Every structure is written in structure tokens, then in C-alpha cells.
């Protein structure tokens, strides 16, 4: 169903045999956002905590070519329960969504261990480009809209990424509670002309398949 692309941050491993992990994030994050919001913070956390090495990140694509999920590739010296718990804690500290999966490589794919993780819930908002005033482009207003919604959400959530469709642009926000996020912005969306016909959707919490 998916194919990977855009691997980054590869390193050389000269310390002998290690255990290979893949953290599959249940979120359609654009590569630039993935680097800023997940790859860079995770690399810092893993080095600071002595957990192992961050290898790289990639996008998983759906059949229509859109980003469906993202993989973060890691190496650790051992995959005991304590180490895995620390890796998951680090991933959740940087905002891993519900429905994410940690895959611990075995001797064969059938022997891989899969551990669900993630604490954040996702919210998708459609911005209708057909409603843009004449002379105003999407880029003119998108940053402003994201900042305004982010201000209303406060600690309840934060902007993560976007998906551009034929007539709409979908904005993705993640936080501790979909209900809390949607309640904080309902009035703003009802008043804003670009969101007049848009709904708020809860992001699916099913783990993406490989």
C-alpha cells in the first residue's frame, strides 16, 4: 500500500551489531515538518539519553501519492524492555500520535515485534482556496491562519503539517484531546470566510500498514 521516500540524516555505525527499530508515525507529515518536529528533536534526545542513534526518516505514500505516514529509523544497542520504554517515552515526548507503531527488527519479518504507542490526537481542518478574496493567494494568508489557530489552541494543540488537494488545503493539528482542540477553534472557524463550508475531522487512529 505504501512506498517510502526522502530518507535523510544517515550515519555510519562502527560500534558493532545493534538492534534496528522503525518508529512508524501515524501522521501525514511533510518532509520539512518531519525534520523540524520529529527527526531533529529525536536525534537530540537519543544522544542526550545515550539511547542509540537516529538513522533517518522517510515518508510512506498511499496509492494516490499523498503522504499517509512517516517512518523514523533508529538503532539501539539492545532491545530490552527498559530501552524500548525509554525510546517510546522519547517519541511521545516529541508528540507521537495515537496509532503509531514501534517495529523491532527480528531475524525475519515474521519475527519482528510490533508495539503500539502514541498519545496525541489529530485534527484536520479544510481551508477552501475557492473562497480566497481576489488578489489574495494561499501563501499570503496560510501563515496567518496557522498562527491564529495555534494561538487559540494554546497548550491544547499545535500545527504539524498540511496536505494540498485540488481545491482545498488540509491543515493538520495534534494535541492531547481532539474535543478540546475543536472546542477552542469552533467559533473562529464559523466566523472565518475560508472555513465557512469546512468541517473539523478527527484523524484516524488506526496504525498504518507497510
TrEMBL record:
**What name appears for this protein in its UniProt entry?**
Uncharacterized protein
